[in-house]
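As a point of orientation, let us examine one representative protein, giving the amino acid sequence and backbone structure tokens.
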Amino acid sequence: MPGINMMPSGSTLQIPLDACTNFSGEAGNAQVTLTWTDPKDKYATPEGETAQDPDQLVSVWEYTQIIRKTGSQPTGPHDGELVVSSSVRDQYATTGFVDNGLTNDTLYYYAAYAYNTDGVASEGAFTSATPIAGTPLSQLAEGTLIKILENGSPVEFYLAKHSYEPSLNGEGRELLVRKDCLPARAWGNNVKNGNRYANSLIFNWGNNDYFNQLSDYTKNAITGTNIKYIVGGGDDSVATLNTKIFILSGGEFESFFNDGEVLPTASILRIAYYNGLQCYQWTRTPINYIDNVDVQVLDREGEVTSGNCGNSGSYYPRPCFTLPNTAFVDADLNLIEA
């Protein structure tokens, strides 16, 4: 209570701290990176905590220990091998502690226990991870070609950008762009307001027929991506769309539109191939016409121009999507489906 020293000198109050929070393990090659947030000191009353009243302190954090075990989750602070003991609060909340020298393809269980100055352990916080042999996408150079399964066969994709549109998606989503174009597809119906990308045939094809060609692992890893796009149908305003599959925008190729940041690999991506030949390809950027389905395209020389797609299917799409930067590739740059 206020005015009463809840922790007089020489006394021991057996009051544990709260458990650590945000405890997670990120698998790597023969290693796991562990991050967590240490608990706050505990006060007798909410008012004491607000005032940071030292007379009301009943449990003070001193250190946190991480325990590792195989076969099952640790049942207590002494059930497993000590990995690290940290006495600097939140030392590993952002950068993480790397537990290395592990065996790939082995599931490791971890528990975090926070101790107070009386040596009392908190309840455990738990996570697990399985190290794998490979390289995360975050460590590859932009422009690297990796292989992803379509209908069970490997297909080449450019790692086009690290942290795609971070203002919309946060850090850590890797942009993958198919190297080769797919057979010609219609943008949409050649009618008034037909060039609205979010309602187009090409958008629906990408998120249904094409999406279903990918493996279950890739489909689950894609989740959804926020992209910028021109509304279309005579409306040149920029909007945000959440989608799984999309195609690149004119802005990403450094045209005068602002529907996306210019990609660092734009010079590579300007040229695409269809059956080994350079081809015309779409962007998702419509031209400001309302009676026809006019869009920006890249011509055979990789220059941004315009074209009328209509129902004729004159141009060739290149599907794009994002994967988390913790996805791995093997030594031959195949996406590891684990």
Remarks:
- The longest strand covers residues 61-70.
- The chain has five helices and 22 strands.
- The helical segments are 46-51, 166-169, 201-210, 216-222, 266-269.
